[in-house]
Specification:
By secondary structure, the protein is an alpha+beta fold. It is built from eight helices and ten strands.
Length: 250
């Protein structure tokens, strides 16, 4: 797989154009096989939304309302996205915030999910990691937020307590991603991400009417008056990603 990737990009650089079609086809085939292999490994290890990465980590699968439903963008298979009626999530852990989503976006990386280029997807997974909204309900240990406040949420889920969070590397949080498969693949799992497969935790995403946010005091940022939803929404992923790219470029 690595050799094909190397050949692909070498050809692209030498020709200064798109890589030859036979390499593109070969790379797509190998990527599909890799995804299938990782999916099989995850099923064999029975890793999923019931897992908790550490004793101080959050519950991954949210409690759901016994009656209330919501509309949510759901991955139903390769190139098969549907808006489904699903159970509305509820505050599950004391540090949770339940958000009524007012704005959400489709990230370019969601295309990887659409094409099933990302392992760990399961039929019915709710996607979306760029969203904001109004606080609907808070857990008993939440102290910085209250019902009715407008907040935005980053794509990653941080605990605010581990080594990585304390050193400013929240996307590598050591407590929010229960995926042992990602540890096997990379030697270290990233933090949990909203709506981005069970390889990053299996959390429901924000392309929905409601979303549960673990560690609400850590992961919700209040939006100041005078800033519209469309202006604030870029802070969830797009703007900080571009900012980081510029920093790396320097």
């Amino acid at each position: 797989y690595g050799n094909i990737i190397s050949e692909y990009y070498t050809a692209q650089q030498h020709r200064n154009t798109a890589a030859p079609s036979h390499l593109t086809s070969k790379l797509a085939t190998m990527t599909g096989r890799l995804v299938e292999g990782v999916d099989a490994l995850m099923n064999k290890m029975n890793v999923g939304s019931e897992g908790i990465r550490a004793e101080c980590g959050p519950t991954v699968a949210a409690k759901t309302h016994p009656e209330a439903k919501m509309h949510a963008v759901s991955w139903m298979g390769k190139k098969n996205m549907q808006v489904k009626d699903v159970p509305r999530p509820m505050v599950t852990d004391p540090a949770d915030v339940l958000l009524r989503v007012t704005n959400t976006a489709i990230c370019g990386s969601d295309l990887h999910l659409y094409l099933h280029g990302m392992p760990g997807l399961r039929s019915g997974d709710v996607l979306g990691h760029e969203f904001m909204g109004v606080v609907e309900e808070v857990g008993e240990s939440v102290t910085k937020l209250k019902r009715g406040e407008r907040v935005l949420v980053a794509f990653d889920i941080a605990c605010g307590q581990c080594f990585f969070c304390n050193h400013g590397y929240q996307s590598s949080c050591d407590h929010t991603n229960p995926s042992k498969v990602q540890e096997l693949m990379y030697g270290q799992a990233a933090g949990g991400f909203f709506g981005y497969s069970h390889l990053t935790g299996g959390y429901q995403g924000g392309q929905a009417e409601y979303v549960r946010v673990p560690y609400g005091d850590i992961n919700c940022l209040k939006v100041p008056e005078g800033l519209s939803d469309h202006e604030a929404l870029f802070l969830t992923d797009i703007l900080p990603t571009a900012w980081h790219a510029c920093e790396m470029g320097e």
